[in-house]
Amino acid sequence: MRRKVGALVPLEVTILEAAAELQLGGQAEVHGYQLASVIRDMRHARRLTAYGTLYKALSRLERDGFLASRWEDPNEAAADGRPRRRFYRLTLEGEGALSDVNAARREVAAKRPAAAAV
Amino acid sequence: MSAEWSAAVVRRWVRLYTRGLPTDIREQRRDEIDDDLWCQAADAATSGRPERSLSGEVLARFLFGIPADLSWRAAHIRLGRGPATSRRSYVMNAPGRGLAAILGGIGWGIGLVVQGFVGRDWPTEGPVALTLMLAVVGGSWMLAGATVGLTIGAADRLRTPLALLAGLGAIVGAASLLGNYGWVVALPIGSAALMWELGRIGVLGTWMARAHVIAASLVLVVIGLWLANPAILDGPATAVPALSLGVPYGLSWVAIGWSLLRGASVRRRAALA
Q1: What phi and psi values does residue A54 have, to the nearest 5 degrees?
Q2: Whole-angstrom distance, CA of residue B256 vs CA of residue B102
Q3: From CA B225, how far away is CA B114, in angstroms rounded?
Q4: Given an 8 Å threshold on Cβ–Cβ distance, is A56 in contact with B156?
Q5: Is the pLDDT reported for residue A13 higher than 50?
Q6: Residue B7 clears pLDDT 90, i.e. is over it
Q7: What is the dihedral angle through the alpha carbons of B257, B262, B265, B266, rounded to the nearest 10 degrees?
Q8: How many CB atoms lie within 10 A of CB B32?
Q9: Residues of A in contact with B38 (CB under 8 A)
Q10: Mapping DSSP to helix (H, G, I), strand (E, B) and coil, where does residue A69 land?
Q11: What share of chain B is helix, strand, coil (3-state, %, to 5)?
Q12: CB count, 10 Å around CB of B82?
C-alpha cells in the first residue's frame, strides 16, 4: 500500500507553516517546543501537540528533505542550565512544498464560487 | 500529582521505547523530549500557570503520543537507517500484516460457511473440530493482530479517537472469542474505523476502504440478526443466507492483505533499485 508520493498530512503542513511563520518573524532556526506552541495558536487548540506525534512528524519531514536540523553546542546548553537543543530550519524543498500546498488551496478556493454558481 | 512526577513518567517512557535502538538515535530522542519538557515547564513558570494544569498537559501529550512513539520505534527497527528510508514515497512495508490479513480473512470466511451448514452443532473433537477452531479463532485473532499492527504502523497519521477505536476494537474482538462471543462485534467496528482512516490519508485506495466499511457494516447486520433471534443459526435454511452477509468482510481482508503484500514487494524493489 503506497502513500501518495510527496503527500503531506495536515500536521506536516501545519509544522511547515509554523516554521515559515517563525522564520518570517526573524527566527531562522526553531526548536520542537516553539513549533508546538505556534501550532497550538494556529489551530486554536487547548493543548500542545503530543510529544510522539510532533517529533515523529519532524523526523519524517527531515527525512524527506523539507526540514534540516542541527544540534546546538552542548556547552551553550550547559551554560543556560538546560538540556541540549535541536534546531530545525525550513529547506528550499520545504518552502516549495508549502507553496504547492498554498497553490492547491487557492485553486480549490477559486473553484468554489464557480461551482456554487452552477 | 506534580509536574515533575508527570515529566518523570514521560522520561521513563522515552527510555523504555528507545531501548535497544542505536545509541545516537536513542540519545537524540531522549534529549529532544528532555528539552521540550524543560521548555514547557519554563513557559508555565513564566506565565504563572498552575502546576496541576501543567502536569495534566504533560500527561495528555504523553498519552496521545504513545501510538506515534510505538510507530516510530517500529519504523527504526524494521527499516534501519539505510538509504531506502529516505525515499519520499511511503510504502507500508508490512508483509507480516498482509499475510495475517489474508489468512485471517480466509479463516473468517471458512468459519462462516461451516457455521451456516452445521448450525449450532459444532463438532467438539477430532480433526474437523481442530480445523474449525483454527479457522474461526485463529482467523479472527489474525485479523485483530493485523488491525493492531496497521494501527501502530500508521498511528501518527490517524486521528487519535479512530486509532484508539481501531486498537480497542481489535483487542475486545479478539478477547470475545474466549467466551463472550457477542463482543466480536468490536472487531469489524475497529477495522472499519482503521480502514476509513487509511483511505482518508491515502495509504489505502478509497474504494477498498469504502468496500471494507460496507462489508463490516454487513457483519454488524449479521450479529444484530443473531442477537435479535439466536435461533436463526439453528439450521442451514436461515443460517446460510444470514451468515453469507459476513463473507464479504473476510474477502475484503484478503484484498487488503494482498495489497499489503504487493506494497512490501514494491518497497523491496525500490530499495534494491
Answers
A1: -65, -50
A2: 8
A3: 18
A4: yes
A5: yes
A6: yes
A7: -140
A8: 25
A9: 82-83
A10: strand
A11: 85, 0, 15
A12: 8
Cβ contact A31–B35 (<8 Å): yes
C-beta neighbour count of A2 within 10 angstroms: 19
pLDDT at position B82 over 60: no
A55 contact B CB<8A: yes
- What would the pLDDT profile of B9-37 be if each residue is shown by its tens digit? 999 999 989 888 888 899 999 999 999 99
Q: Do A48 and B61 touch (CB under 8 A)?
A: yes
Q: Which residues contact B256 (CB under 8 A, 6 or more apart)?
A: B98, B101, B105, B195, B204, B208, B212
Task: Say how many residues make up chain B.
Answer: 273
Element (H, E) at A3: strand A2-3
> At residue B247, what is the residue type?
V
CA pair distance A10, B156, nearest whole angstrom:
11
Q: Tell me which chain B residue has its CA closest to the CA of residue A78.
A: B35
Is the ipTM value over 0.95, yes or no? Answer: no
CB atoms within 10 A of CB B137: 15
Instruction: Name which of A4, A65, A83 is nearest B38 (Cβ-Cβ).
Output: A83
Q: Which three cell numbers stand for residue A103?
A: 497553490
Nearest-Cα residue of chain B relative to residue A88? B32
Number of C-beta neighbours around residue B259 at 10 A: 20
A118–chain B Cβ distance below 8 A for any pair: no
> The whole model's pTM is what?
0.54
Of B153, B158, B184, whose CA–CA distance to B171 is shortest? B184
Above pLDDT 90, what percent of chain B? 29
